[in-house]
User: Which sequence fits this backbone?
């Protein structure tokens, strides 16, 4: 198996740099943090963005009491 090139390491770094804040946003919205993995899958990430944008957030429902 060949060694990873700097481009591969940069790609991994960018993915991790995106997943960490997205996980925090998803968790604060009241959903499981594993939903952030959807950002890696093309087309699914766009659909997930729309779902999270227009769906009711469980944490906002708790504050309306």
Assistant:
């Amino acid at each position: 198996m060949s060694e990873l090139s700097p481009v591969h390491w940069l790609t991994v770094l960018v993915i991790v740099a995106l997943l960490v804040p997205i996980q925090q946003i998803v968790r604060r919205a009241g959903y499981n943090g594993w939903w952030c993995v959807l950002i890696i899958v093309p087309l699914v990430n766009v659909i997930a963005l729309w779902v999270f944008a227009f769906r009711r957030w469980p944490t906002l429902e708790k504050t309306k009491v």
Summary: The chain has a mean pLDDT of 86. The two ends are 57 Å apart (CA to CA).
